[in-house]
Amino acid sequence: MKIAEARDEMVDHVEQARNSLSRCINNPAFVDRFYDLFMTSSEEIRKKFADTDFDRQKRMLQDSLFVMMASAGATSGAAYKELSKLGERHSRNQRDIKPELYDVWLECLMKAVAENDPEFVPGVETAWRESLKAGIDFLKSKY
User: Residue 135's closest CA among 63, 67, 89?
Assistant: First the structure.
């Protein structure tokens, strides 16, 4: 696949994922369902959120998803700077989020998307995964 074709495909994935995210966010149950899934996935994750202000956390999740999609494949710009800050906050030096927890996070997110996006189809899931892959890989690398 040529570079231009790969870039166009990524743009299509990001657009499809952003549209899905917008639909999900319009459903008040989406973020709550994600955190229900995520918090019940492991004791380690529950402990990480023990003293969390969930109203703030829910807003941060939504913002982070948009940042990760906006920065897909980027190495500069405002979204990349925000992703870099997110990476530092989640590193072993601050919140100590181990790389393998991002895989759990993604699976819980995909389940919440599937349950809350009325237009969810396998292609939407692919779009989400492709749109978030670079951001997740970046965050893992900052551990």
Answer: 67
